[in-house]
Design brief:
single chain, alpha+beta, Arc Repressor Mutant, subunit A, 4-stranded antiparallel beta sheet, 5 helices
Length: 150
Amino acid sequence: MTKFDAITHKILQALSQDGRISNIDLAERVGLSPSACLRRVQELERSGVISGYRAVFNPAALGIGVIAYVTVGLSQHTKASQSAFEAAMQPVQEVRECHNITGTVEYLLRVEAADLAAYKLFHTETLGALPMVANIVTFIVMGSPKDERG
């Protein structure tokens, strides 16, 4: 899809807020007929603009009491080191996101843990045990006044 007009932006905004909205309600919200709205949504899906739908969970209801962003610097700046670190993060339940970034460190992680003791265990036994990790800096989330992750 090459054209992103105001209606397409409205569709994307509405779907980002409620991915389960009915086509009839979505069409009404954006000012289209249901058939025209459905065609647009299907084209957004077909072209890869919409790559999927997912549920958003309440961390507290899942027993998650600590959310942290963690920067990780590697001791060697090699492809092998990066590949090994990325492979090590894949099975780790606490790591919800792992991003290779630019700057003074190689990675930014989003980590969720039950409590501070569980985070410390992850920090020590998982990250701290990896031979390619040179430094770890943790930022504990105290609140999230805006969070638009889907």
